[in-house]
Amino acid sequence: MKPFKLIQALFGPVPRHRAIDCFERVRSGTAILIDVREPDEWTAGVAERAVLLSLSDLSGPRAQWTPFLATHRERELLFYCGAGVRSAMAARILAREGFRTANAGSFKEWAAAGWPVVAPRAR
To answer: What mean pLDDT do residues 80-103 have?
Structure first.
């Protein structure tokens, strides 16, 4: 991703949802939960049902993102990260590309709200 587009992704409106308000959408399959932290951060655990797709791949080669986005264009994409900053960036980037997105906060928020935390699946 070009530096200017990455800087643009830091600003602009994007919906922000509390984790607990997203539970039913993720459980029903109308929304997909995506962990945009980096792989070394996943070792401490991930939210159950979260798809593991790093922000660095989204803003770079999109090796994992391209096939994922091609098959999930119609679903809402809910992002979380370590503190909620990278998830907002991912939501903004993909909202500009026409996806329905929202920042779903941080991993800690999901765990504190009672969503199960599991070991990451091997890629």
So the answer is: 96
Domain boundaries, the chain: 3-118
Distance CA 87, CA 90 (A): 5
Name 106's bridge partners: 81
Query: Which fold does the domain 3-118 belong to in CATH?
Result: Oxidized Rhodanese; domain 1 (3.40.250)
Phi, psi of 117 (to 5 degrees): -110, 135
User: By the 8 A CB rule, do 34 and 90 touch?
Assistant: yes
Q: Identify which of 46, 106, 47, 43 has the alpha carbon closest to the alpha carbon of residue 80.
A: 106
Element (H, E) at 102: strand 101-106
Asked if the model's pLDDT at residue 95 lies above 80, the reply is yes
Quick: pLDDT tens for 8-36.
Answer: 656 667 999 999 999 999 999 999 999 99
The answer to whether the pTM exceeds 0.85 is yes
Number of other CB atoms surrounding residue 4 within 10 Å: 8
